[in-house]
Amino acid sequence: MDLTMPGLNGLDATRQIRKTHPSCEILILTMHRSEQLVHEILSAGAIGYVLKSDAAEKIVDAIRHLLDHKPYFTSIASRVLLDSYLHPSHSAVPSAPRELTPREREVVQLIAEGNSSKEIADRLGISEKTTETHRANLMRKLNIHSVSEIVRYAIRNRMIEP
Questions:
Q1: Per-residue pLDDT tens listing for the chain (162 residues)
Q2: Domain range for residue 40?
Q3: pTM beyond 0.70
Q4: Cα(48)–Cα(25) distance, rounded to whole angstroms?
Q5: CA 126 to CA 110: how far, in whole Å?
Q6: For the chain, what is the domain count?
Q7: Whether residue 85 sits in one domain with residue 15
Q8: Are residues 16 and 74 both part of a single domain?
């Protein structure tokens, strides 16, 4: 699973897949490396993490691990997890009282990709008014006041590629 797919980002796709197919093992392939991202990947239900820069040499081994229902993390992800376990007070993962719902994350991504409210509503199978409600809720939660700030938020949180 690539994290920055258009339409539905990899984390939300992982959550949906795990919800409907809990025995499915998911490997995340990404160019992003951060402690927060590793934790988000785990909480979404993926059991593997490979950086794109390591893919040529690690991808086959990672897939073999997942086929045996074993987790696989590149050394950088393992280091991040071990460090956050050994030093929880130094963890870079912020407590997120303003965490977005999966639907709000979808709406952020679709807005940041340039979709109109009507296009988002059609894509998600919801009304345009519901789309506007989601937009208003997420903007209030994040203290964001414009579409350009939504785009900036989506880029910073690796929901879309710059």
A1: 888 777 778 888 898 999 999 999 999 988 877 777 777 888 889 999 888 888 888 999 999 999 999 999 887 777 777 777 777 665 544 444 357 788 888 899 899 889 999 999 999 999 999 999 999 888 888 888 888 888 888 888 777 776
A2: 10-90
A3: no
A4: 8
A5: 14
A6: 2
A7: yes
A8: yes
